[in-house]
Amino acid sequence: MSDPHSKLCVMILEEHFGKDVANVGSNILVYGVKTLSQICSSSALSVKEVKNILVLLLQHSLLQFTDKRKPGVVDYAIQKERIMWILRYPQYMSLAGRVIGPEAAEIIRNLCKIGRSNASHLIAQTYKTVNSNKEDPNQIISLQRIEAALRRLIASKMVERCPSCASSDDVPVLESDEKTRFHLPQLDNQTLKELTETEAVVDIEDKDIDWRMNLNVLNHKVRDLMIEDSVTRRVDRFAAKIVGSVLEIASDMYDPWSQVSGHLSYSVITDKVRADHEEAEVIQYTDQYLNILSSDKTRFIDKVGDAGGGQYKVNFKHILEEIAAATVDKIILEKFGSKSMRIFRYIREKKYVEENQIQQVVMIPSKETKLLTYQLMETNLVFLQELRKSVAPNAPSKAIYLFYVDLSQVVRSCIMLCLTSIYNLKTRAAMETTENIRLMEKYERVENILEALRAEGGTPDQIEEVEEMLTPPEREAVEALKKRLEQLSLAQVLNEETLFILETYIRYQIS
Predict the structure, then answer these.
(1) CB distance 333 to 342 below 8 Å
(2) Coil/strand/helix, residue 83
(3) CB within 8 A of 327, min separation 6: which ones?
(4) Is the pLDDT at 395 greater than 60, yes or no?
(5) Worst-scoring range by mean pLDDT, 65-69, 92-96, 377-381?
(6) 3-state DSSP helix/strand/coil percent for the chain, to nearest 5?
(7) 449 half-sphere exposure, CB direction, 13 A CA radius
(8) Which residues contact 380 (CB under 8 A, 6 or more apart)?
């Protein structure tokens, strides 16, 4: 499997679910679609094991099934996009915590772990995890507070009800009821309390109603936060708050994934800003901020009329193009240097440029300019267009060669680079862990003994004796390993953020 996308999907499956799940996922990915018998024969696993794995993948919405090709025979297909979205789970948790609160972040974290669950078990599990290390009764988070956070998640459409079977056929068709999709029934507080206090089976009323993350909504909210962060860097945090309110209105009134939103009146924007924010700077200078945002090169907000105090719209396609272009500039800066970035920017801004024009403008020596330009062309970041002066077959072969940038193609190349980088980072992290597994096991064993001693009130001499089980060089090696793994993890997060920007740009280009 040479495709970086597929290789990374298999690695993500192995990292989160184990080797057997990765084996089944790899078998399906190779052919695109497979039946149960084909998966069993190619994966060397029993029918029972394969069925359990397929159930697990369906539980996390990573698998599709249908019998359209041959009625009665179920075909299974892996959803690559959904597997890649597993990398965004930390962003989803951060988003829920930022918008609603820490209880919502913990609910999303539990949904990331289990895929889907009924509301009663989800609230009980969240209650146990958020209060597991709290000894002070005053710090205990109540069940009602967690239930309120879940209701807010559902109201904001970040969590949705799972589709139900629309037929009683052997291969069911799953359909969502729009009336109940974002409606949580009333829950029994006594039942919730029983679930938190006992491990025994408790009969609950909503056992047949499962809930899962609404990844489409979570993705567009992450996109909105990304735009807000861009405004903060470009203007300031007060402008970002106004843009956040405008994006929320645009998502509520129109399709959140449309290229351009519909018209938003000045009165609607100001009412929303006053309702969302209390800072005097935001409310008092809304007019000025709207003027700055609409006149900026990035055009975070476009002014399209003066009726009713002003009419505005959000051009998502243009905003993502500007952010993607800035991201590509940064990639070129890190990979090739500031001179190459200067050449790339000039070519992109002028659209078509002759080689001698580049040398005259970018203020780099002629020989070096030529070297850097052809280096960019070799890595598919700059392209060459040949224009013949004459189309006559007997005319002298004279032609003009123009350099240009196809941003969509460049972004696709950068996406492949990001996928390869994430794969290599995960491989390196796994290798580092494997090479030092004995040392880490010894370190964890010593730490567990120390924790137990401290809990039992061990003497300083006993604690010191246990600490000496790890030599100073071993402790240094453990700290160095932790630092390396932390750096690799951070690099994966930053790569995923870049990948999200680039993929969102491509989504708008092909829509």
Answers:
(1) no
(2) helix
(3) 414, 498, 501, 502
(4) no
(5) 65-69
(6) 65, 10, 25
(7) 15
(8) 409, 410, 413
3-state secondary structure 271-295: HHHHHHCCCHHHHHCHHHHHHHHHH
- How far is it, in rounded angstroms, from Cα 111 to Cα 211? 9
- Give me the phi and psi of 95, to 5 degrees please: -60, -50
Structure confidence by residue, pLDDT tens digits, 306-360: 887 788 899 999 999 999 999 999 999 998 888 999 999 998 998 888 888 888 8
Token pair recorded at residue 450: 């120390």
Q: What SS3 state is found at 203?
A: coil
Spatial separation of the C-alpha atoms in residues 497 and 226, rounded to whole Å? 9
Compute CA distances 211 → 42, 81, 183, 216, whole Å: 33, 20, 11, 15
Nearest Cα residue to 247 out of 274, 226, 216? 226
What is the C-alpha to C-alpha distance for residues 101 and 27, in angstroms, rounded to an integer? 41
* Residue 501 vs residue 68, higher pLDDT: 501
CA–CA distances in Å: residue 302 to residues 221, 240, 244, 268, 428: 20, 15, 15, 15, 45
**DSSP secondary structure code for residue 174 in this structure:** E
| Ramachandran region, residue 117 (left: φ > 0; alpha: ψ -120 to 50; beta: rest) | beta
Let me know if 147 is exposed, middle or buried by CB neighbors in 10 A (0-12, 13-18, 19+): buried
Residue % of the chain over a pLDDT of 70: 96
Residue 492's pLDDT is 92
What whole-number distance in Å separates Cα of residue 162 and Cα of residue 32? 25
CA separation for the pair 190, 168 (Å, rounded): 34
**Phi and psi torsions of 88, nearest 5°:** -90, 0
DSSP-H helix ranges across 131-174: 143-155
Has this prediction a pTM greater than 0.85? Answer: yes
Residue in 498, 476, 496 with CA at minimum distance from that of residue 488:
496
- Crossing angle of the two packed helices 237-253 and 266-276, in degrees rounded to 10: 120
DSSP state of 362: S
The predicted-structure confidence for 75-97, as pLDDT tens digits, reads as follows 899 999 999 999 999 999 999 99
Neighbour tally for 303: CB within 10 Å: 16
Structure tokens at 45: 């696993």
Which of 436, 478, 434 lies closest to 467, judged by CA? 478
Structure tokens at 469: 């089980």
